[in-house]
């Protein structure tokens, strides 16, 4: 039983004594006695933290004579942990809440394939932060107490986790190792560990039923320039090791996600081109638990990880317009998400036509398409620049470009119906608005909307369903 499994809570400290005190006091208050040990690794604090830590009788304390950074410090803590304990890495600028650890453990041990889990919070990247109703930390506990009711329907699979509060099975640590110290002083070491966990065949989960408060990156706040330099350096180290950028390959495409509206219980078959690490598909799986996920990912380094999460193929569909999944996918998909593939296609008409046979008779295709008529493109052209302007909404590698009428025409010519085209625009400056008014003086004021949209998300339905009814 997971209730009997002990947890070693690893906390690094470097000054910020007030946060350190809040963190430890909250753990003692809201964590079942006897189910955990606390290991503090202090990275040479100078604000009284070390002296205060020496007074604490219920912790294991490691005092470093220099700041070793996050990965090395965590590894010292992990190595000092009881050998059978699971490992929970916790930031010192957090405040624990009722049932926080119990709920994490319930998810972690609900399936032998789950290797690590993480909490949600008010301040975090990787979509692990939620909007909170409280404005005062004193009101936070009431909110967390209501949120932290163990519920398996609130467990969400992810392609990576942020280690501000991350619980890892001991067997996983033993199998994949600890943090890679090349990422010292910190950042991307958690992404790297997550990739190793997934590559070893385990799942990563976010527990939306375990909320803790996170004050947020206190160790780096004093020097943002240094922080940004470390981010860039370690992002490069990660790419050298894995062959891709973990941030860009795990972005959630909400413009796509929001275009799928189905009954929650419906069994959906969803395919995504350029699926990355599968993050968007996993979000759809969380929304539609009976969905089956499939991906096409041309980057073999990315696909090596994503294929452990979803069924993934790496082939270029446009080479022979086939899909080499384990089983035939003819008339199979409810949704095919092609993203920006139209702009890079050698023959968009043939691409759309060939995809129809893989859609169910009433299935949908969804594409994201930048607007060639956006005022910024027109303005750039008038100044002598086009796609090579670094501020352009157009990708320099695009080979095809579309306006709104073009989008409607190409889908209709390829046999799609029931268009849903969603327009995305931003606020513009007064200067740009004056520019638009001058353009509209020439082409007509009714055209202003065509210049305002920087991107369209086009959702069209396969017309085979209609044809079979006639």
From TrEMBL:
The entry's keywords: Glycosyltransferase, Transferase
GO molecular function: glycosyltransferase activity
Pathway named in the protein's UniProt entry: Cell wall biogenesis; cell wall polysaccharide biosynthesis
Coiled coil residues, start to end: none
InterPro entries for the chain: Glyco_trans_2-like, Nucleotide-diphossugar_trans, SAM-dependent_MTases_sf
Family annotation (SUPFAM superfamilies): Nucleotide-diphospho-sugar transferases, S-adenosyl-L-methionine-dependent methyltransferases
Domain Glycosyltransferase 2-like, chain residue ranges per copy: 8-176
Pfam families associated with the record: Glycos_transf_2 (PF00535), Methyltransf_23 (PF13489)
Bilayer-crossing regions: none
Family per record: Belongs to the glycosyltransferase 2 family.
Name of the protein in its database record: Glycosyl transferase
């Amino acid at each position: 039983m997971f209730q009997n499994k002990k947890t070693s809570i690893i906390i690094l400290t470097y000054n910020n004594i007030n946060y350190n005190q809040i963190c430890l006091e909250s753990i003692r208050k809201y964590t079942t006695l006897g189910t955990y040990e606390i290991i503090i690794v202090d990275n040479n604090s100078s604000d009284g933290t070390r002296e205060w830590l020496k007074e604490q009788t219920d912790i294991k304390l490691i005092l470093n004579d220099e700041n070793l950074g996050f990965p090395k410090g965590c590894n010292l803590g992990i190595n000092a942990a009881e050998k059978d304990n699971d490992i929970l890495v916790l930031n010192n600028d957090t405040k624990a809440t009722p049932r926080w650890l119990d709920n994490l453990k319930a998810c972690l041990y609900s399936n032998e394939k789950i290797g690590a889990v993480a909490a949600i919070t008010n301040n975090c990247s990787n979509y692990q932060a939620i909007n909170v109703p409280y404005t005062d930390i004193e009101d936070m506990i009431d909110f967390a107490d209501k949120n932290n009711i163990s519920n398996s329907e609130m467990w969400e699979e992810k392609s990576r986790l942020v280690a501000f509060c991350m619980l890892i099975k001991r067997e996983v640590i033993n199998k994949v190792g600890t943090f890679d110290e090349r990422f010292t002083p910190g950042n991307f070491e958690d992404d790297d560990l997550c990739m190793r966990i997934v590559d070893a065949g385990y799942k990563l989960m976010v527990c939306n039923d375990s909320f803790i408060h996170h004050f947020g990156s206190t160790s780096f706040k004093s020097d943002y320039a240094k922080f940004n330099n470390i981010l860039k350096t370690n992002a490069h180290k990660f790419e050298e090791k894995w062959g891709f950028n973990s941030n860009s390959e795990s972005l959630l495409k909400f413009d796509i996600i929001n275009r799928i509206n189905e009954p929650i219980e419906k069994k959906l078959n969803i395919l995504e081109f350029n699926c990355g690490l599968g993050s968007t598909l996993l979000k759809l799986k969380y929304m539609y638990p009976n969905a089956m996920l499939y991906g096409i990912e041309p980057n073999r380094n990315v696909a090596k990880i994503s294929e452990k999460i979803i069924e993934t193929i790496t082939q270029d569909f446009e080479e022979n317009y086939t899909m080499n999944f384990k089983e035939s996918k003819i008339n199979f998909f409810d949704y095919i998400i092609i993203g920006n593939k139209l702009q890079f296609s050698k023959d968009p008409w043939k691409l759309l036509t060939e995809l129809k046979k893989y859609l169910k008779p009433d299935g949908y295709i969804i594409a994201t398409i930048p607007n060639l008529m956006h005022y910024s493109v027109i303005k750039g052209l008038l100044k002598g620049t086009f796609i090579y302007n670094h501020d352009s909404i157009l990708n320099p590698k695009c080979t095809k470009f579309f306006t709104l009428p073009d989008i409607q025409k190409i889908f209709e010519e390829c046999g799609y119906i029931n268009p849903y085209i969603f327009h995305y625009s931003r606020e513009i400056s007064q200067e740009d608005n004056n520019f638009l008014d001058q353009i509209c003086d020439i082409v007509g004021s009714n055209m202003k909307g065509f210049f305002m949209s920087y991107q369209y998300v086009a959702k069209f339905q396969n017309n085979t369903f209609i044809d079979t009814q006639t």
